[in-house]
Amino acid sequence: MKQKNIYIIDFDSTFTQVEALDELARISLKKHPEKDAIFQKIEDYTNLAMEGKLSFGESLAQRVKLLEANEDHLKQLITHLKKKVSASFSRNAEFFKKHADEVLIVSGGFKEFITPVVSKFHIKKENIYANTFVTTGDGKIIDYDHSNPLSEEGGKVKLMQQLNLEGDLYGIGDGYSDFQLRESGLIKKFYAFTENISRESIVKKADHITPSFDEFLYVNNLPRAISYPKNRILCLIIGDADPLTIELLKKDGFSVRHKTTFEEKYVPDVHMMLLADGEKIDLEKLKRAVKLKTIGYLGSAKNKVDISTCTEQGIVVFDDPKHNPRNIDFIPKRMIDFMNTGTSYLSSNFPNLQLPRIEKSHRLIHIHKNVPGIMAKINTVFAKHDINIVGQFLMTNAEIGYVITDINAQYDKQLFKSLKKIEHTIKFRVLY
């Protein structure tokens, strides 16, 4: 009989982008004359504990003493934290709804602010394990419950020993207390979550580095909002590109490499490519870049990129023939839109298609030669697999057809093989 999987997820800097106690300090000490010095002390205590250089119990005690917080400050914090849920957790809310019985939040933070944030993701209150504050009658936070094992050094280990859960346990977190679960042998694998912060001392001990929750779901073959994690999409930047251009692509989650030339080792694996003005792509390498989906050019791509080869291979090109000074953000944004939604608007070689994301559906992209009858073949495949089409968008030019189909959540993976086998297909991918 297959063991039940249980997912143990940290809160601070994992489920949320920030350390909640640090944020509470910024709220409660906003008018304190020595606020900057106190903020720094609190952050230092946080980092020392997360890196395993100070016991968690000592770190927690020192931080709570410095807070000078009350229940009104907590209300402000909760409002703030709801806006700071990590992007990859937010977009996979459906996972938590479907796996509510298997997800545990285990944190050295406090239930008073964790529960209101995670509850809207259908995480059960009885599955939230965290510390609790001690307050005075007028709502001032003066201490915390020292009898809670999570307030102690090795608290997550002590808690999981008490719970004695049956099944395969997987831990996801960014700090030393999360790694301790793996070290103790209580969990099967530890995933170092690096979407918000990467701690070298923790990353090197992890079973797997997961730059996003999408990556965790992908490697464990679990339902997810996007079909392929962005951190696995290689974006190669060639030449002298503006730092803003590079930052836009990094911020969206792609795996960015900035190089002076198109190195041979990247040819088979590159998905996106951005070239600085004046750079050229070798035609022979372009033809072998079978995974390449889009090229951005910070200037005119004429005589620098073989556009006809790109079109034949289903590569969408965005360039700026007029050398608009805004191309440093305009071009990467077009590439990002194409990768995220399939939008080919303002492409120099593809039919222009601009469309919204449709929720609770899967988006399939089919690029093909513009020949008579191919759309009938595509829709015949959908009909044979009993697929309900939510929306379909088609644009063509003299050479190619570009069709995006949104389907309902139920599909057979054999469907993808059938679509790829249609004669005159150039490229096919599942967007999300």
From TrEMBL:
GO terms for cellular component: cytoplasm. Its EC number is 1.1.1.399, 3.1.3.3. InterPro entries: ACT-like_dom_sf, ACT_dom, AHAS_small-like_ACT, D-isomer_2_OHA_DH_cat_dom, HAD-like_SerB, HAD-like_sf, HAD_sf. Its cofactor is Mg(2+). One of its GO terms (biological process) is L-serine biosynthetic process. It comes from the Bacteria. It holds the Pfam family HAD. One of its GO terms (molecular function) is oxidoreductase activity, acting on the CH-OH group of donors, NAD or NADP as acceptor. It catalyses: O-phospho-D-serine + H2O = D-serine + phosphate; O-phospho-L-serine + H2O = L-serine + phosphate; (R)-2-hydroxyglutarate + NAD(+) = 2-oxoglutarate + NADH + H(+). Keywords: Amino-acid biosynthesis, Hydrolase, Magnesium, Metal-binding, Serine biosynthesis. Residues 363-432 form the ACT domain. Pathway: Amino-acid biosynthesis; L-serine biosynthesis; L-serine from 3-phospho-D-glycerate: step 3/3. Catalyzes the reversible oxidation of 3-phospho-D-glycerate to 3-phosphonooxypyruvate, the first step of the phosphorylated L-serine biosynthesis pathway. Also catalyzes the reversible oxidation of 2-hydroxyglutarate to 2-oxoglutarate. This is D-3-phosphoglycerate dehydrogenase. It comes from Pedobacter ginsengisoli.
